[in-house]
Amino acid sequence: MGVVIFTDVHADSIAISSLASCIHTPLFRQSFGKVDLMVNLGDLIQRGDRPQETLEMIHTLSQEYRFVSVLGNHDHAFLNRLLVSGSDAASTYRHEQMRGSPLLSLFDTMPVEWSDRGMLFVHGGPLDLGNQMLRLKCWQRLSSKSGDSFTGYNYTAAMAFEALAARGLTHMCCGHQHKNICCRKTPDGIVQNPIEFGPITAKKREEEHHIEVASIPLDVPTLLRVGGCHGDEPEFAYTDFYTFSFIRISSR
C-alpha cells in the first residue's frame, strides 16, 4: 500500500498543484510505486492567499485518489473565527470571501486524527489533554521540553511514544511545525535520526520535476514530522509502512 502524505499547505495552491503533478511523473512512479491513498495532515487554509484554488485542488485529488484529511490548528482557527498570527491583509480578505462556500464542507466531518497499520496520522500530537484549545491534538507541538505555551502544548518524544504504545500503535506522522524531523525509539533509547536528502535523477532530461529524498526504515517505533507543502520547495512524504520517505520538490 502506497501512501502520499502532505501537510501545512496554507492556501498555497501552486505548491499542492506541484505535488499533484509530481506524483504523476514516471520519475515518481519508478522510484516509489503506485499511490493508493493520500493523507492531508491539516492546515490547508490560512496564511496563504489562494484558499479557493487550494480547496478546489483538494476536491480534484479526492476524486482521483482515496483521500483522508485530519484537522490542523489553522483550519480550526479559521472555522471558529479565532485570530492566529501569520496572515496578512490579502490572506485574511481572500479567506473571509470563502465564508459560506460549499468548498468548506470538506471540514464538516474532518477528524483530528486517523490511524492505519500501526501509524497515527495527526496534525500536532497524540495526547488526550481535554478541550482547552491549545491542548487539542491539532495544536500540540513536539519539543524537547513539555508544558503549556501560547502556541500550543509542548510534548516530548518520550511522551508521544508512551501515548502511542498505550493505544497499540508504533509510529506517528504529524506536521504543524513546518520542519521535518525523525525520532526513533531504539533499544539504546530515543534518538533523533538525521534526515539527509539526496537527489533522484530522472532517466530522461525532459523530466519536469527534480525531487530529493531521505528514507527511513520503520523497523522500530518512530515519530515522523513532515515539512510544509508550501513555498518554493514544497515537501511531502511517501510510505508503504515498511519505509518512510521524506520528499522535497527541488527548485534546482
Report the end-to-end length measured between terminal Cα atoms.
Answer: 30 Å
**What do we call the CATH homologous superfamily of the domain at 3-113 and 187-250?**
Metallo-dependent phosphatases
CATH class of the domain at 3-113 and 187-250: Alpha Beta
Please report the number of helical segments: 6
What's the CATH architecture name of the domain at 3-113 and 187-250?
Answer: 4-Layer Sandwich
Structural class, please?
alpha/beta
The number of E-state strands comes to 15
CATH topology call of the domain at 3-113 and 187-250:
Purple Acid Phosphatase, chain A, domain 2
Largest sheet: 7 strands, mixed
Low-pLDDT segments, ≥5 res: none
Average pLDDT value?
Answer: 95
Give the strand order, joined by hyphens, for the main sheet.
3-2-1-14-15-12-11
The portion of residues forming beta strands comes to: 25-35%
H/E order of the elements?
EHHEHEHHEEEEHEEEEEEEE
- Basic shape: globular
Q: Work out the helicity level.
A: 10-25%
Radius of gyration (CA) equals 18 Å
Describe the structure.
With 252 residues, the chain is of the alpha/beta class. The protein has a domain at 3-113 and 187-250: Metallo-dependent phosphatases (Purple Acid Phosphatase, chain A, domain 2, 4-Layer Sandwich). It has 6 helices and 15 strands. The strands form 3 sheets. Strands 3-2-1-14-15-12-11 form a 7-stranded mixed β-sheet. A hairpin with a 3-residue loop joins β14 (235-239) and β15 (243-250). The two termini are 30 Å apart.
